[in-house]
Amino acid sequence: MAGGSGIDVLGQFELRPVLGGLGEALRFSQSPLYMLLAVCLVLAFLYFGMRPAAVVPGRFQAAAEVCYEFIRNMAVDTIGPEGAAFFPFIFTLFFFILAGNYIGLLPFSFTFTSHIAVTLGLALMVFVLTVIVSLKVQGFRFFAHFMPAGASMALAPLLIPIEILSFLSRPVSLSIRLFANMVAGHVMFDIFASFVIMLAGFGVVGDVFAIGPIAINMALVALELLVGVLQAYVFAILTCIYLREAVAH
Amino acid sequence: MGEESDESFAKRLEAAERRSGLNEKDEKATAAERDEQSLPALALRAGTEMISALIVGVAIGWGLDRWFHTRAIFLIFFALLGGSAGVLNVWRLVKPPQA
Q1: Per the record, where are the segments of Basic and acidic residues compositional bias (chain B) (predicted)?
Q2: Domain assignment of residue A203, given as a range
């Protein structure tokens, strides 16, 4: 990734075909491969966690149940009683992003949430869902939200486009937030890791000083573990907030 | 980097867990909306909101210009609107509760 002279911090985000000839033919890159891996991991976690189905859960089952209840409470508390209907969607979204963020922290792996195409795809899914739910629940009253209450009619031609743009910016900000956090974290890893290699070129003194960047990188792993769960949480809670506005009468 | 952002993230996570893990405190909507209260996090979020509205405005303006072959009229107009929408987004983020 990082040579002695040039630092190539963005090389880690490049997509390459995987799985040999078959992957080449299908244009199958690391990104979908790691998505499949994330999905399999989450499903395996839930399947093997819940297989005992004991009344008194073991550790594994307790972990699966805590995850379930955490998202369920979040959905129902934020959206209201209608939130139960959206719980499976939010659960999937949260754990897909979380698994993606965490798998990306493993050495030699790939972070699919570091691609704007992926995060924008997820955000647009949320956006389209909220628009459909809004139109279904509120009907044409949905469009009344674009005119702020109490503003004078003379300002409407200016205010309505601003409100519409503000509404349209939601999926963009949702996706940029996740994407930027992931890219920034992984770029920092790469920069500090390349410092180690550069310092190694300075003999014994460099070897001693190289401990610094290694220590920073270890701290960064801890930070990234937090960022990974926080960004998944923020994505899920914002989805809940948007859906709450959609189902509000 | 390091310690201070660690701390702020820990604080945010703690606040998030308190709200979502234990639901006896029935603070629903407004609390969830302002879940990122630490200053760097808020600044980052405000920046994202502002930039994203501007991106949407510029994209729409550029697209309309391309469509109607009117160079830069729509781009200028929608960039201004996008900037305003960004400020509106930030205001929504920081406005006092129940204003």
Answers
A1: 8-35
A2: 11-247
pTM: 0.78
ipTM of the complex: 0.71
In a domain, A59, yes or no: yes
The alpha-carbon gap from A19 to the nearest alpha carbon of chain B, in Å, equals 37
Whether residue A70 lies inside any domain: the answer is: yes
Report the candidate in B30, B94, B41 with the shortest Cα–Cα distance to residue A245.
Answer: B30
Q: Show the tokens assigned to A223.
A: 């930070």
Q: Do B88 and A163 touch (CB under 8 A)?
A: yes
Give chain A positions within 8 Å (CB) of B85: 162-163, 165-166, 169
A5 within a domain of the structure (yes/no): no
Q: How many CA atoms lie within 13 A of A110 on its CB side?
A: 20
3-state SS record for A128-183: HHHHHHHHHHHHHHHHHHHCCCCCCHHHHHHHHHHHHHHHHHHHHHHHHHHHHHHH
Answer yes or no: is A148 within a domain.
Answer: yes
* Amino acid, res. B16: A
Reported as a single tens digit per residue, the pLDDT across A45-97 is 988 888 877 777 778 888 888 888 888 988 888 888 888 888 999 999 999 99
